Every structure is written in structure tokens, then in C-alpha cells.
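Quick question, first post here. What does this chain look like in 3D?
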Amino acid sequence: MSTPAAARPARLARPELGLRRNWYQFTLFTFITLLIGMTIGVERVALPPLARQAFGITSVLYTVSFISAFGAVKSVMNLVSGRLSDQRGRKALLLAGWAFAVPFALLIIFARAWWWVVVANLFLGVNQALTWTMSVTAKIDLVGPVNRGLAVGIDESAGYVGTGLGGFAAGLLVAAYGLRPAPYLLALGVIAVGTLVSFGPAKETLPWARAEAASRGGPHAPAAGVPGLGRLAAYMSWHDRGMLAVCQAGLFNKFADSLVAALFPLYFLREGLSLPAIGLLAGVYAWVWGLGQAASGMLADRIGRKAPVTAGTFLIGAGIAVIAAASTNALRVAGAAIMGAGMALTYPNLIAAVGDTAHPSWRGGALGVYRLWRDGGYALGPLVLGAIAELAGMAAALWATAAIMGASGLILLLLLRETDPHHRTRKPAWERNPELVGL
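> Answer (accepted):
Ran it through. C-alpha cells below.
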């Protein structure tokens, strides 16, 4: 029997936005983000010591090259994946991202030279760009404009709790079974679970983004056109000073995170700490960062984005300074916790600021540009900080990063205007001057 015509519109009803209405899908994507974080958390503790112990590498700059390779690929793929996701959807790219994670683990398990590890991190960069970008974009799609900060905060909380869990578990596995293959067998198990959840119950969320775009309507609706990638990159990078401030904050944020991922294990080993102790420090940093982000997102939904991201950037620099000056493990743990608190305030709210500013029809592309800048810090940071460490010592690299974070906070203070729709005093620059994005 054919379906009555009157019943058909209900089937074609526009997806409903909101965290409560979409709690099941939101929870699935949160679990996926936890697994993404665990994947990268494994190598944060297990990989830097491998350079010296397995391959005899003593150069700090050469050792941290794996992070630069990771960051270079991830930043470019963020840009590509964000744009593609607006056209092809989120789920297909998410699945492709998990596929790229398999060679990462296998290459490190069987590596016979350090360049194998560098190549492995090219695959990891693609994995993280596709999976994490799609996961956070999916959550923003589902919730719409209300509680956007909370949604991103939950996403990032899950990811960095996962990073802490992965790092802590890797430290235990290394202590019990050695640097290879145990930590990367754990990573392969995580990748398998992530693939199954992404392929199975997780849904495509692009219809939710299109529903939000249609609900906004107006002269700058999707029918008016979508900015070209070059125009969008120019808008995000310098035409809108607020977005310029956001992008530079993301870039230097990754200088600080590169310090933790690449130099902290080497620095703490030279200070006489054991690998489990280093894993604990990395875990404290990631757990405070992760667990604090949901509360940070809620706070920003209430008071706006500028205050949390600016204060957080200054806190990151303060935490690094505490670690650089510390002479006891208690002070190092305190510094790691301060850094984590700063990350919790900045990380989700920088993403939310981009989501506030961009139109839903080109939000994926705008997030891609921001993430290009942000993860470019992974490419540039290890090279800059590694060179400083080679020339002046690792302590000098820590103090230099603290100073960089202080300068970044000043730029936010001067250039960033409030972006949250409920607190901003004027519309985004592209709404006031549509020609900036070619509309």
C-alpha cells in the first residue's frame, strides 16, 4: 500500500536541533572523540624515548621531527577536510580518518629507522585531521546555535581525557613490556572500536547543519553562495581581526602543546624522572584540560568567549613558567595542572568563537581554516622550540614558550571582540561587509 501524500511531509521534516533532542548521536560522537584522543595519547609517552633507545638519536631537533611531520599534514588536511565535509558530509571522512590510523601503528611497530616513525606520523596527522575535525563538527551540527560552547567543551573534554588515558596506559605498558609493540597494539584496538562505532550507529549530521542554515535564512543564506576557499582563508586570517586573533591564539596554543608532546618527555628524563612519572605528568595536564572543558564551554555560553580564551592563554604561559622554575615533582604537577586549566579555558572556546562567526553553510570550511592555523603550530612549534633547546638548552625552550603565550594573550586582549550571539555588540564582519567573503 502506498504512503498517503499527507503523511510524507512528516518523513521529510527538518532535523531538530538541540543537545537534548540529539543526545544519543551526541553521546556516540563524544565516545568517538574519546577514542581519537586515546590514539594520539599513546604516542605522547611511548614515542619520544624510542628515538634514543631504539635508534640512537641524541639530537633534540631530530627527535621532535615526528611532531612537525604530524602537524604539517594535519593542518593541511584540516583545511581540506573542513571544505569537503560541507560538500560530501561528515561520516565518510570520519571513516577515512580511521583507515589512515592503521598504518601509523603498524609502521612504528615494525620501524627499522627513525624515518619510518616520521612517515607513521604523516598517517597519524591525516587520521587526527579527519576524525577529530568531523567529530567536533558533527556535535556543532547537532546542537545548533544554543549551547554551542557546552557542546564543543564536551567534545574536547572527551578527547583530552582520552589523550590522558592513552598516555597513562602507554606509560604502564612501556614499563611492563617495553617501548614496542605493546602501546601500539593498544592503539590498534582503539582504532578498531572507533571504526565500528563510526561505521555503525553514528549518523551523517550534515542535514542538521543544513537545517540550521535554512532556519537562519536572510540575504546571506546558502542560496546567496558559499565563499571560495581562498576568500574564506583570507577572511579568517586577516580581514576579520577577531578571527585573526583567534587563529594566532590557536597557532601558539599548539606551541605549548608541542612542548608537552615533544620536549617534556626528554626534559623530564634528563631531570631523572621515570617513564610512569612522566606519563602521570602528561596525564594530569591532559585530564585537567579534558575534564575542565565542559565547564569552560558552559561558562563561555553565559559570559561570552573573550574572557575565557584570554585568561586561559595567560594561564598556559604561567603553568609553563612554574614547570621551568620547579625543583620538585609537586611543583611540576601543579604547573601541569595550571597549563591544563588554561587549555580548558581556551581550546573549546576558540572553536566556539569560529562557530559563532561562520554561517552554517560554510562553517566546516571556516573551522578548517582555523584548524589549519592551529595545527600549523604542531608543524612550526617543535622546529622553533627544538632549535632553541639545541642552542640554549631545554629550560630556555620552556621559558621562550611561556613568553610566547603571554604575547598571544595580549593580542587576544587587544583584537578579539566578543563573538557569542547573546553577548556580542555587533554582527560579524562578513555580515556587515558581505563582499569580504564574496557574497
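The chain has one domain: 18-210+225-437.
The radius of gyration is 21 Å.
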